[in-house]
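[audit] Reproducing an earlier prediction to check determinism. Same input, same settings, fresh worker. If the tokens differ from the archived copy the diff job will pick it up downstream; this log only records the rerun itself.
[audit] input (158 residues):
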Amino acid sequence: MIVLQKAMEKSHLYKEDEFGIKNYNYGILGFLSLVLFSILNIVLGYVTFLAETGVLDSPVQNYGDALWLMLMSSTTIGFGDVYPITFVGRAAVFIMFVLGVGILGGVGAVFANKVFGFADTNIKNRELRKQNEEIFAQNIKIHQTLEKLEEKLESLIK
């Protein structure tokens, strides 16, 4: 998580608002996630293809089967029609499972955040903070005016 956060900081794919809150460009981040997800599927599918095609009784007969295996493992569907039987194939599926679920889960969380408006809470909180600052400044001004009036009143009474 720390590595991802550092990468996000260095990418400068965000704008800082007046409160110092970083608002990320989720369109670009979603696109980069899709690209990373595709590259992982293609590369690990090829590794699985190389590891499985020469093995007797392997359900992975061609690159399409290997790519299908990667897609099914990354989305946690796993129909069971294609499965690895070599250690390298199983390791590739395991890696794709962990990374694929992580990438898809992250994209899904961002999507849910945008659709269901959880991000609006942050915006409302920022607006409320700004209003509170304005009210606080106004209260200070009223307090100063009140002190001046009290001083004038005391000078009139004496």
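[audit] rerun output stored. Observation attached for the diff report: Residues 2-116 form a domain with the Helix Hairpins fold (CATH 1.10.287.70).
[audit] end
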